[in-house]
Amino acid sequence: MDTAQYLDIFLDESRExxxxxxxxxxxxxxxxxxxxIIEEIFRAAHTLKGMSATMGYNDLANLTHKLENVFxxxxxxxxKVSPEMIxxxxxxxxxxxxxxxxxxxxxxxxxxxxxxxxxxQILEKGESPKETAAPVAEKAAAGTSSGMAGLDEFEMTxxxxxxxxxxxxxxxxxxxxxxxLLKGARVFMIFEILEKLGEVIKSEPAVSELEEENFxxxxxxxxxxxxxxxEIEEKVKKVSEVESVSVKLFxxxxxxxxxxxxxxxxxxxxxxxxxxxxxxxxxxxPAKKQAKAQQNKTIRVNIERLDILMNLFEELxxxxxxxxxxxxxLNHSDLQETVERMSRVSGDLQNIILTMxxxxxxxxxxxxxxxxxxxxxxxxxxxEIEITGAETELDRTVIDEIGDPLVHLIRNAIDHGVEKPAExxxxxxxxxxxxxxxxxxxxxxxxxxxxxxxAGINREKVLAKALKNGVVTPEQGKAMTDQQINQLIMSxxxxxxxxxxxxxxxxxGLDVVKNTIESLxxxxxxxxxMNKGSVFSIQLPLTLSIISALLVELKExxxxxxxxxxxxxxxxxxxxxxxxxxxxxxxxxxxxxxxxFLSDVFEVPTIAEEESDYISVVIVKKGEKIAxxxxxxxxxxxxxxxxxxxxxxxxxxxxxxxxILGDGQVALIIDSNALVK
Amino acid sequence: MSQDKQDRKVIVFQxxxxxxxxxxxxxxxxxxxxxxxxxxxxxxxxxxxxxxKGVVTPIVDLRARFGSEEVPYGDATRxxxxxxxxxxxxxxxxxxxxxxxxxxSIIEPAPxxxxxxxxxxxxxxxxxxxxxxxxxxxxxxxxxxxxxxMQLDA
Lengths: 677, 154
What we know:
Distance between the termini of chain B: 43 Å
Number of helices of chain A: 22
Structural class of chain A: alpha+beta
CATH architecture of chain B: Beta Barrel
Radius of gyration of chain A: 34 Å
Mean pLDDT of chain A: 77
Number of helices of chain B: 3
CATH class of the largest domain in chain A: Alpha Beta
Order of helices and strands of chain B: EEEEEHEEEEEEEEHH
Number of domains of chain A: 5
CATH superfamily of the largest domain in chain A: Histidine kinase-like ATPase, C-terminal domain
CATH class of chain B: Mainly Beta
CATH superfamily of chain B: CheA-289, Domain 4
Strand order of the largest sheet of chain B: 8-1-2-13-12-9
Largest interface: A-B, 28 and 25 residues
Strand content of chain A: 15-25%
Low-confidence stretches of chain B: none
Helix content of chain B: 10-25%
Shape of chain A: elongated
Largest sheet of chain A: 6 strands, mixed
Oligomer: heterodimer
């Protein structure tokens, strides 16, 4: 089968299933008795196994299979959940993730997983990995005499349904003679006979093991058939070298009650009605699909296609602008009405296209609980995470970029923020520290806050360090507000932890975090109180693709200035311009603002024009600093679609991108950060 | 002669009184001259950007790139959109002539100096009946570092 076309879907879905397994494992650690969680993990692992086997990634399928076996054991209380066990499970999930990424990178998904497989097998036997540290040789099938070890939900369903449809369930135990040489061949013959009579649901040991002769002399199969007991026994006995065959009716109810007394599940009534086998098969498939469809009613669309859709839509917008102009010029009422209606529809369309690109921040958040658990264990700290607002939506491009900065901030909070349990107890705080991760919408922005109840930022320490590193002078330091001090930790070359740890503290992080967030058009602020904790608050634009901007004119050229950086606009008489340190400045409400003449900065070709006595100034901010950008005239505020200038022009001074105006012209977007000094 | 598998299909365009060629596989489209938005403080041969079906596309003036005298754009002026490192870039040329097949066998290495263009930017020349086609090496023509070097030489 050519599976290449399914690769993307396979990768996407595998990642999703692994994600589910990760998340649920964490929950399981907290609620080891919760069967619903195990069911969900099991289902995810099972699907993953099936998919990877279909795609031909056998290593992936094998490891998942081992994982699945352990979950199976947990399900039937053969295995107890312990933190060590969860660690091994996570290690297995890590391996699986690495394999998937290998496949994504064009590899074949193979990987040396012997160690973790051994551990999983130890777990599967219900032993604690601590007691048996040495790897144990492969012997997956434990004791065939005890009959069926466990059935998964799918098998249960088939067995349950078979009865409704008139099939009988049999448990057939076959023992081959001691002298049997070709056990595999005998097994094959027996299976061939059985396949003619009905359907093998499960075998102990598994069929693959049987074919490889990985069993002593006996095996058991669960078998669904419409033939009677004697007939089956008779036919199986005809195979030579079979010592004994015992066929007995298998009762699913008894099996259930014996395996899981506490698990409430509806029982299936046994009836005897005849039904051909093929129909039964048909029934299985839809039953499984239905369960899946209910989970998620979405389709996957390549983000590139959404980009193309967006581009096409923008072209439409440009034509709409033209059409509006024409209808005004012609003053034809029918035309005007139609154009107005079209404008409304395209406005709705724009909203839909934009929301299609939005994804919940959960995509980023969901990986944090596990990371925090691991970090806290590594650092001997007791930390819990609380997540709220994971459903808050952000543009896909922002989501892709925001992961790393958040990871850094969380690591920072655990490493520098939350104290060790003993220290916390001494301060009269609960031993368990809490990190809160909160996301919410506000206006055209999304806020993400990371707060901890740890030590807070130590003003003295930060200041001492800043002085030592020459970031500030002693005079400056004294005058600084707490807020300004807090901002200092985001300047480069900063690390206040006394010992540099693996986790954070190389001092290269927080300024990178700040830069990344600012490059996304967002901002970050810190609030902190000694011994109470700190809050890092990130403000992000809802979408990167559409921004509000002020359009301005420089001679005949049009430029856009993002509204987010503008404080106000002003028209000022030339006489109000002063000179200070050979620079032109203006005084607005007692504040001296340096002027930047954009026509000079951008070397706009001059055209003969009568000099006006007034100048138009756009006052912009960059952090605490402000500057006045001098333009020729204001055109007005407009929502513009942000376009990249592309790699060829990426390093253009003071230009952050471009947009296409209603008349189809390209206008450049000014990066005022580069102009404020 | 078009049966020859070694043919190379090229787009021929005019710059001054010379004919140049680029492979059709590298050409996205040929556009008439349109509104170009100037990009401040960039290389002198980058004339700006255009709106090419919703994509902001940089425009390189080949006359300026090769250091020859620039003329106002006219009716014949064309923008040839070429692919370069996963990007689309527009080349301003005096006129687009035609699409022809050049047999690989008649392509010769570039002589040291030919016309206006430095041999470094030329992949080869092809003599075709009465015409002389200069095959441009787009990688080098569009490489900004190459351009910076040329500025130094001048």
